[in-house]
C-alpha cells in the first residue's frame, strides 16, 4: 500500500478534489444559511453552525496542504511529506474538533438538553 502513487492517479485526484470542494461548499452553506435545507422549521444554534463551519474549513485546508505539499514541495521524500502533513492535521483538526465538541456540549448542557 505504501508504494501506491495516488498523486499520479487521475480518478483519485478527482475524488480528492470533489471531497475538498464539498467540504468548502458545506462550510459556506453553514455560514450563510440560518435554516435547514430539508426542514425549514428546524433551527440549529449559531454556535454549533460556526464550529461545524470551522471544522469544514479545516478539512478544506487539510486537503489543500496534502495536495500542495505532495505535488509542489517534498516530492522526493515521502516520509517527510507524510510526517509534515499529518503533523499539520493534528495541530489543526484535532484541537478544533475537541474545542468544538466541548463548546457545543457545554452550550447544550446549559440549555438543559443533555
Sum this structure up briefly.
With 114 residues, this protein is mainly α.
Provide a descriptive summary of the structure in words.
With 114 residues, this protein is mostly helical. The protein has one domain (6-111). Helix content is 73%, strand content 0%. The chain has 3 helices and no strands. It has helices spanning 10-32, 46-71, 78-111. Helix 1 (10-32) packs antiparallel against helix 2 and helix 2 (46-71) runs antiparallel to helix 3. The longest helix has 34 residues, at 78-111.
Domain unit count: 1
Instruction: Give the distance, in angstroms, between the N- and C-terminal Cα atoms.
Output: 43 Å
The count of strands amounts to: 0
Mean pLDDT, nearest integer? 79
Q: Rough shape? A: elongated
* Beta content: under 5%
Amino acid at each position: 500500500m505504501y508504494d501506491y502513487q495516488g498523486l499520479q492517479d487521475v480518478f483519485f485526484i478527482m475524488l480528492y478534489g470533489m471531497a475538498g470542494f464539498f467540504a468548502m461548499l458545506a462550510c459556506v452553506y453553514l455560514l450563510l444559511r440560518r435554516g435547514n435545507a430539508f426542514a425549514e422549521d428546524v433551527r440549529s444554534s449559531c454556535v454549533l453552525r460556526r464550529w461545524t463551519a470551522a471544522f469544514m474549513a479545516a478539512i478544506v485546508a487539510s486537503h489543500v496542504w496534502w495536495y500542495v505539499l505532495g505535488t509542489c514541495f517534498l516530492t522526493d521524500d515521502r516520509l517527510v511529506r507524510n510526517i509534515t502533513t499529518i503533523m499539520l492535521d493534528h495541530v489543526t483538526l484535532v484541537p478544533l474538533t475537541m474545542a468544538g465538541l466541548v463548546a457545543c456540549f457545554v452550550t447544550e448542557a446549559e440549555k438543559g438538553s443533555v
